[in-house]
Amino acid sequence: IIGLAVFNKPANCFDAVQNGTETGIDCGGGCELVCREEVRDVVVWWERPFRVTNGVYSTLAYFENQNLDSALQEVKYEFRLYNYENVLVSEPIVGSTFIEPNKRSAVFESGIRTGAEEAYTAFFKISSVQEWKSVDQDFSYNLFEIGESQLTNQDLSPRLEAVITNKSFETFDDVPVIAVLYNQKGNAVAASQTYIDRIGQGKTQRAYFSWPEPFNEVISRIEIIPRVSPFEVS
What we know:
This protein has no helices and 14 strands. It is mainly beta. Strands 3, 4, 6 and 7 form a four-stranded antiparallel sheet that branches. The chain is globular, with a radius of gyration of 22 Å. It starts with 42 loop residues before the first strand and ends in an 8-residue tail after the last strand.
């Protein structure tokens, strides 16, 4: 009698089989990849162009990830700017970004040239397949405390100073910080982005923003959005 040895391979997240604690094929359970049916889509609340000066615009898309511990490491996106007649006024702007868990956030593009045309509306779409990954729940909560912002020189070239404190137990490098300014009706009328080179645990840094021309409306609220990828931690 010849004995046959049977070897059972341990379950893993890369064998194209639903096994172990997985809730789908190579996703869910103990896998880094989250099953697509277990997450909510990113909600884009609004997208808008902002005039910087003649023929130059910036644009911003404001979105929300409602998943508590799931994030996107990289998504590719596209902006398109249109005039009053719904005619494209610049080349499509393409880029990539991460999307944090359980947060409202934004993606910003600047230096968009429209020539003699005025940009009236913006269209934003995520153009790549979304691969959701599980992340540490510490990133699902506010990592920063935003102090009172100071907006000065509004009649000539506005300048904004924001105080940001790192409340987490991590040190972050090259942190993009977006400022969104709203009028009395709650509509966004200006936006900008800068970077903090490094902000350590418990440390406070100042972020500065500026615009070359005055705003045409009274600013009643300022939102400061520091962005940190849970996949890139020092």
